[in-house]
Amino acid sequence: MKNRVGLSRTFEKGMTLVEVLAAVVILSMVTGSVLVTYSQSRTTSVRDNERLAATHLAQTVLEEWTALPENNYAELNNALKNHPGKPNATIERDLTDPTLQRIWTSLTYQGFSPIIRFHYSNNTLDGPVRVSVTVESKNRISVSLHGLVVPPGP
């Protein structure tokens, strides 16, 4: 093939260095965005799994705690009435409490810590006792569930 000046030019098969560099840059951008998306989804998945495990643990502890006969309304009501911060008193229990420790050791999760708080739900020295269970993971993800212990009916 001849160009305008009359010199012949041969076309070689293959890609030039500029074309190769452009392809590498485009491929790098696409690969980078895919890796960032994967990394973010992995982080979200781990966080959601921790939150799900914490919710399961909080629900189990709340159900087990309120089902135990020694944690009945009369005991909680008595403890709250004798607490120095009444009527807005809050009693807090952690793993030093033997009952909570007994419940917690039956569960097989590691890296979570439970706290149970009790207080009157209506800021008087009578009525339902609100039970709040907070479970926190090692990565500071916490879940709180609440329940009521009500006075026995007539």
From TrEMBL:
Transmembrane portions of the chain: 20-38
Record's signal peptide:
none
Supply the alphabetized keyword list.
Competence, Membrane, Transmembrane, Transmembrane helix
Q: Sorted alphabetically, which Pfam families does this protein's record hold?
A: N_methyl
Record keywords: Membrane included?
Answer: yes
* Source taxon at top rank: Bacteria
Localization, UniProt: Cell surface
Q: Could you tell me what this protein is called?
A: Prepilin-type N-terminal cleavage/methylation domain-containing protein
- Origin species, per record, is Effusibacillus consociatus
